[in-house]
Amino acid sequence: MSPNPEIVMELKDDNKFLLIDDTACFDVFLTDNNQVQNRIPFVKTG
């Protein structure tokens, strides 16, 4: 495995009238080998 993997996530929503344009609506967590969950902050790049 790469020491700097690129992880791509996509959110699909069927509601055409209420768009999700704010990342405050949800959180992303990664669980390590010890079952410890680490929150991944959203960061703008580019």
Write the layout of secondary structure elements.
Layout: E1 28-31, E2 37-40
Antiparallel strand pairs: 1-2
Provide the structure class. mainly beta
Low-confidence stretches: none
Strand content is: 15-25%
Taking Cα atoms only, what radius of gyration do you get, to the nearest Å? 14 Å
What would the average pLDDT be, to the nearest integer?
Answer: 82
Report the helical percentage.
under 10%
Number of strands: 2
> For this entry, what is the oligomeric state of its chains?
single chain
Q: Which geometry do the CA atoms define?
A: elongated
Distance between the termini: 25 Å
Order of strands across the main sheet: 1-2
Element string (H = helix, E = strand): EE
Count of DSSP H/I helices: 0
The biggest sheet, with number of strands, parallel, antiparallel or mixed sense and barrel status, is: 2 strands, antiparallel
Keyword list:
0% helix, single chain, 46 residues, mainly beta
Summary, kept brief:
This protein has 46 residues and is an all-beta fold.
How is this structure best described in words?
The protein has 46 residues and is mostly beta strands. It has a domain at 21-46. The protein has strands at 28-31, 37-40. It is built from no helices and two strands. The model has no long low-confidence stretch (mean pLDDT 82). The two termini are 25 Å apart. 0% of the residues lie in helices and 17% in strands. The protein has a two-stranded antiparallel ribbon.
